[in-house]
Amino acid sequence: MEGKERRQTASVVPLGTVSPSVLNARKSLGLPRTTKESKLGRKTGLISRPSLAGKLVSAGGQPQRRSSTYGNSSGVKSDPRPVSDKGYQQKLVRTLIQFLTEHGYQSPIAPKLLTSPMAKDVTTIAQFLHAQADPHFKKFSKLELDIPELFKNLRYPFGISKSALFAVGSPHTWPGLLAALLWLVELLCYQEKAEAARPHTFDDKQAAEHDFYMYIEAAYKAFLSGDDAQAQELDDHKMQQFEERAGSIDRQSTELQQAIEQLQAELQKLRSETSPMVVARGKLAEYAQDQDKLQHVIESLQAHKQSLQRKLQEHQGDLQSKQQQLSTVSQECKEMRQKVAAQTINRDDVQRMNSERCKQEEIRTSLALQRETLERRVGEQELKLEQQLDALETTIQAYNSTADRMQLIPATAKRAEGLHFEAHVDRSGAASSEIVTLNLKGSVKPALNRLRDTSANRARELSAEALALQERVDALGIAVAERIEENNGLQEQVEDLEGAWREKKGILEEDMRAAREQAEGLKQETAGVRGWGVQPLQDSYAAHHALQLQLEDAARRTQAERTSLSSELEEAIEMICSHKFEIQEIIRNTLDHVRQQKSAFDAQTWDDMAVKPA
After folding, report:
1. Whether residue 424 is found in the same domain as residue 361
2. How far apart are the first and last CA of the chain?
């Protein structure tokens, strides 16, 4: 066979009795020729095989529906378009010029030229539009015969008479022909938009099937035309696609394995870290110790305060008695001066008065000494009183600070209940009730006792909640351990699936390699026996075709196995990831709840610590 002869499939008719012209004239078993640009550089015509993509969309984005106007009725139809309207004709001319300009029309074109064109211009435009629809079109032989045939094949709904094409530029002929050309332009625009929308109408599975179908179609055409180089190029290209897809699956598997390792490392890190509950228990023990220490300090300060109040009352009583004695002595001195002024003085009286004066001087001296002693004692007592008042002010300030922290002051505070807990020291007060401007026993102490009882009840409730939370944390720990065991089991399943996938992949690769080697051997045998005769050649073709089918079947089984293993691996990974995220969410919610309960418990504990001393 020569290289340019079309290769024929095996037939029941003896090849030796059939002439080459008959062989090459028979109908092909392949699909009709198409004008769509494929990966191999061929196009398909407007009338091609049914699309695998379902309904295509029109230029306006709506589904294309077949109009009943374009049926195969035998009657003559009237054109409803206003083709005789000058404005409509100008619009059609502008649209036609725009399409020709955008698609590389080489001949001169202008609106004036299309007002009443010549037959040559119409022929050139019609040939250009026909070439856009069919790249294999060459030229019109006769305009009056080819143009009606063209529009009839394209199912143009209105007739074009042959007699009208002898004067295409006449006013009664050109508008209808111009409308027909615009109909063809709209059809070409629709084809472009439909071809542009075609890739978006396939999902992954349909796209893979479509690509494989296109490969089978191109390979079969190359086989029928005897183009072995192109057939080999197609096989190599498809094999490269399979290898790239296998490499992509391997990379995805590697990425998933890395993600699993990262998740395992993160899980191991969470296991190795100290439990937040242990840290919280340690802090709770420290807070309890601090509470006991502060309780002892408050009790000692309360006792010291009571002793100072008793001493202050005693000193105030002594001061009042000394003041009374001083007023009595002053009154007696005044009375004595009045008596002395009223008496008559004689010698005996002078002597008596001198002796009394000496006695009084002695008494005065002793009283002066007593006065100095008393004044010194009063100064010491006043100094002690000032010190005690300073200490009392310090204690009152600490009390006010604690009450403010406990939200007891001012009277509008959260726990004040409308009572005034704020205390002040009045240094000018005479009695203890006047020095401290607060009724401690009557109002403050009962209110604090009520607050202490409430806090104690709340502390018991929080203790019960903490115990319940601890039980829940223990249960969650058991659940986490169970989930970890499930994760380990799922990991083992993933490893088993990966091992099985690798084993099947190796087996399939060996099968494909053996099939390729067998195909190469058959090709060499075919090349060696080309001149032996018809029957050996037919056998070689049949063997080659069977081997090709085996190779395609092996490729399909390989792809199916890879797809199945990949889906199983993805499902396992998704189960592990969802399980891990669920555990993380449970742990996070538990930790948040424990932190909230701990914060509330700490706040209540501080409140109880501040309430108990009062």
Report:
1. yes
2. 117
- Token couple for 430: 């005479």
What are the helix (H) ranges across 226-346? 228-272, 276-342
- Say whether both 141 and 172 belong to one domain: yes
Give the CA radius of gyration of the chain.
57
- Domain membership of residue 243 (yes or no) is no
Give the CATH number of the domain where residue 112 resides.
Answer: 1.10.418.30
> Tell me, what amino acid is at 542?
A
Helices first, then strands: H and E counts in the chain = 12, 0
Per the domain annotation, does 233 fall within a domain? no
Provide the residue type at 237 as one letter: H
CA distances from 271 to 266, 275, 478, 480, 584 (A): 9, 9, 13, 10, 12
Count: domains in the chain: 4
Rounded-to-integer distance, Cα 451 and Cα 421, Å: 13
Q: Tell me, rounded to whole angstroms, the distance of Cα 157 from its chain centroid.
A: 55
Instruction: State the SS3 of 389-435.
Output: HHHHHHHHHHHHHHHHHCCCCCCCCCCCCCCCCCCCECCCCCCHHHH
CA separation for the pair 399, 128 (Å, rounded):
103
Same domain for 92 and 14:
no
- Report how far residue 210's alpha carbon sits from residue 207's, in angstroms, rounded to the nearest whole number: 5
Per-residue pLDDT tens over the stretch 437-480: 666 666 777 877 777 788 788 788 888 888 888 888 888 888 88
- Sign of the torsion formed by the C-alpha atoms of 274, 276, 279 and 285: negative
For helices 228-272 and 204-225, angle between their N-to-C axes, nearest 10 degrees: 160
The confidence score (pLDDT) of residue 258 equals 93
Q: Length of the chain, please?
A: 614
In this prediction, residue 262 carries a pLDDT of 92
Query: DSSP label at 34?
Result: B
- Which domain-ending residue is among 438, 473, 502? 438
Give the torsion sign (CA, 313, 314, 315, 320): positive
Amino acid, single-letter form, for residue 558: T
Residue 176: closest CA among 213, 135, 214, 122: 122
- By the 10 Å C-beta count (0-12 exposed, 13-18 middle, 19+ buried), 110 is classed as exposed
Report if residue 444 sits inside a domain: no
Question: Do 312 and 358 have their domain in common?
Answer: yes
Q: What are the residues whose beta carbons fall under 8 Å from the beta carbon of 76, sequence distance 6 or more? A: 159
The answer on 18 and 91 residing in a single domain is no
Helix (H) / strand (E) element for 527: namely: helix 445-528
3-state secondary structure of 63: strand
Same domain, 180 and 210: no
Each residue of 53-92: pLDDT tens digit?
Answer: 344 333 334 344 444 334 444 455 777 888 888 899 889 8
Higher pLDDT, 96 or 78: 96
Domain membership of residue 71 (yes or no) is: no
The one-character DSSP state at 9 is -
Q: Both 458 and 606 in a single domain?
A: yes
409 burial (CB, 10 Å; 0-12 / 13-18 / 19+) is: buried
> What predicted TM-score, i.e. pTM, was given to this entire model?
0.29
**Residue type at 392?**
L
The answer on 363 and 318 residing in a single domain is: yes
Integer angstrom CA distances of residue 88 from 175, 183, 488, 504: 10, 14, 77, 68
Q: Find the domain containing 312 and state its range.
A: 276-438
